[in-house]
Amino acid sequence: MQTPRKKMRSARSLDPAMELAIVEVAPGGDGVAIVERAGERRAVFVRGAAQGDRIEAKVDFRSRPAHGQLERVLSPGADRVDPACPHAQRCGGCNWMHLTTNAQTRIHLEQLRAALPEAWRETDVRAVPAVTRELGYRTRARVHVRASGGRAIVGMHAPSSHDPVEVDACRVLHPSLERARLGLGALFERAHGTGEVELALGHPAASERPHVLAVRWSSVLPPEVYARFERALSPAGLAGASIVCGEATRPAIIGDPTPWMRGPDGSPLRLAVGGFAQASEEGNHKLAQRVAELASEAMAAATDRTNVVELYAGAGNFTVLLARIPHAQTVAVESNADACRAAQENLSARSLAAKVVLADASSYALPKSLQLLVLDPPRTGARAVAERLRAQPARFVLYVSCDLATLGRDLAILAPVYRPRAIEAFELFPQTSHLETVVLLERHRS
């Protein structure tokens, strides 16, 4: 079941606490109980519940499915552990911190298999533990800020809410980002409004990694806030910030806000300011290396220089590996101009030959004879691309996805023309219900 994310109604709309037995965990992360109510079977979704739990919860039956508010665990299931963070239940950042590592992997594999086209569900699916640390692993994060009355509250959104939750420590952030998060409240003092801040690391050559900030604010920030950002600049602290306020189309730049990561080849990789990158450098390394291995397998039969097209290429995270594949003429397509510039710089720094194209991936004209298409779309997936591949198939498609629902939709479109060569689940986000999936497809019908 897909969990609708609706804000819990006021306490007056909740039924008195009732006992529930949790029978499964739904995509999105909530535990699910089935109850009889007014002569019908109703599903109840409860955040923070584990399969096998018997719990007491207050339930709002006005929504469909119903949503429960966990009051207490009466009898824990085998999947449950005590969360490593005392704020896990009220902070929306780590919705699976109450589950064992094995349970997180098992449920991810079950949900991935259920998302596949029915004919593929017996295909071998491999789980890949992509990070060695389950805490302190995040090298990128987004936090939310609400400022009023001279004070700013900084945190992840509360579950099913847009209100940030203030906590004394975040257990999953890299130490540099945690120091940055703790200092944000003081930077936004006497501001008014709401905003979000992207936290990322600076250049990896520094002995102590600095951090950078990309701020989007709902209204005008007072001059004193900018002055605080200026004063906060330091070699081992804040390297720079990009600030966009209200309807402004260009950011105010303080210092050097360029985010960097250790690329999958071990060299520094420049990223776009405020652009996409994986949540951890270690997880990204394993993911990108595996993408390159599968791409090399797909290219092994090519004897001449053959086309490789990468859609949604970003700053070239995969491109710097794809461009090394023998016999490949790699074209990287990206719609963000700053990401394209970063990709070109990253390729040039490595003396690699690949063409970077600023274009919309969904409408980019694919070559008629295409050996390999690599795509890593956002959560909305790549429906338009999948529909085009039905009519003009590449020999191989390597699809990297961060959303099981849209992955399943797109694979269902491709299933009549392609068969799976590899399906792998990468655990890039411990303590959360998020999953990264890599699928290699081979054309079996023209």
From TrEMBL:
<feature type="active site" description="Nucleophile">
    <location>
        <position position="402"/>
    </location>
</feature>
<keyword id="KW-0808">Transferase</keyword>
<dbReference type="InterPro" id="IPR029063">
    <property type="entry name" value="SAM-dependent_MTases_sf"/>
</dbReference>
<feature type="binding site">
    <location>
        <position position="376"/>
    </location>
    <ligand>
        <name>S-adenosyl-L-methionine</name>
    </ligand>
</feature>
<dbReference type="InterPro" id="IPR007848">
    <property type="entry name" value="Small_mtfrase_dom"/>
</dbReference>
<keyword id="KW-0949">S-adenosyl-L-methionine</keyword>
<feature type="active site">
    <location>
        <position position="402"/>
    </location>
</feature>
<feature type="binding site">
    <location>
        <position position="334"/>
    </location>
    <ligand>
        <name>S-adenosyl-L-methionine</name>
    </ligand>
</feature>
<keyword id="KW-0489">Methyltransferase</keyword>
<dbReference type="Pfam" id="PF05175">
    <property type="entry name" value="MTS"/>
</dbReference>
<feature type="binding site">
    <location>
        <position position="278"/>
    </location>
    <ligand>
        <name>S-adenosyl-L-methionine</name>
    </ligand>
</feature>
<dbReference type="GO" id="GO:0008168">
    <property type="term" value="F:methyltransferase activity"/>
</dbReference>
<dbReference type="GO" id="GO:0032259">
    <property type="term" value="P:methylation"/>
</dbReference>
<dbReference type="InterPro" id="IPR010280">
    <property type="entry name" value="U5_MeTrfase_fam"/>
</dbReference>
<comment type="similarity">
    <text>Belongs to the class I-like SAM-binding methyltransferase superfamily. RNA M5U methyltransferase family.</text>
</comment>
<feature type="domain" description="Methyltransferase small">
    <location>
        <begin position="300"/>
        <end position="384"/>
    </location>
</feature>
<dbReference type="InterPro" id="IPR030390">
    <property type="entry name" value="MeTrfase_TrmA_AS"/>
</dbReference>
<feature type="binding site">
    <location>
        <position position="312"/>
    </location>
    <ligand>
        <name>S-adenosyl-L-methionine</name>
    </ligand>
</feature>
<protein>
    <submittedName>
        <fullName>Methyltransferase</fullName>
    </submittedName>
</protein>
<dbReference type="InterPro" id="IPR012340">
    <property type="entry name" value="NA-bd_OB-fold"/>
</dbReference>
